[in-house]
Amino acid sequence: MNKARKPLKLLLAVPMLWVSAFTFSASPALAQDAAAGEKKASMCIGCHGIPRYQASFPEVYKVPLISGQGAKYVATALAAYKRGERKHPTMRAIAASLSDQDMADLSAFYEKHGASSVKTVADAAPAAPPADVAALLTKGACASCHGANFNKPIDGAYPKIAGQYNDYLFAALRAYGTDGNPNVGRTNPVMGAQVRQFKRAELKAMADYLSTLAGDMHTVPLNRFR
Fold first, then answer.
1. Which residues does residue 55 pair with via DSSP β-bridges, in sequence order?
2. Stretch (H or E) spanning 135
3. For the chain: N or C, fewer Cβ within 10 A?
4. Pick the CATH number of 34-218 from 3.90.1150.10, 1.10.760.10, 1.20.1290.10, 1.10.10.10
5. Residue ranges of the domains in the chain?
6. What's the whole-model pTM score?
7. pLDDT in tens, 76-99
8. Which of 176, 217, 184, 196 is CA-nearest to residue 51?
């Protein structure tokens, strides 16, 4: 019995990843042009340029904050949508229309988007979570990849998650544990194994806590929506 469990234990011991190195093949380094990315962002701002904009399909939750997110992660996520490893229909369609250069430019744009108007987040560790949530975060080894304050990942391919919308975080976590749904799901063996060790209520508790933390991500509203 113990021998049969070893592979699973080893897999669960891997730090919590939002984008697995096993499913991400980096393209050759491309020059990033944030100015070009701004011109290409017209397809993004209709959702990501409206504060607290809520999607209704395939699930109801606020679209994620991406201004201030790391460029490498944005490009990684877009590539995952394009390959079908993330199944969100709208994002898959948009990503399918993008070249590697488009993704590089958009990533550079969103990493710096509105940074001058946002107060820099202190590097100090966040307030301690409730004991039950702290135990869950430790079990998932979340800080091992997302950083001690969940805002400075150890590698750019991992996202900043501090201050992200709680309903989006909860939906993303659930997606890693969803199989057989044509519109919802994320193919990632490491995150899939991590998510399956938690109950839904536990995933929600972690998402709720992470959303309360100070972070670099924000929404830069379009003028007509102000």
1. 61
2. helix 131-140
3. N
4. 1.10.760.10
5. 34-218
6. 0.84
7. 999 999 999 999 999 999 999 999
8. 217
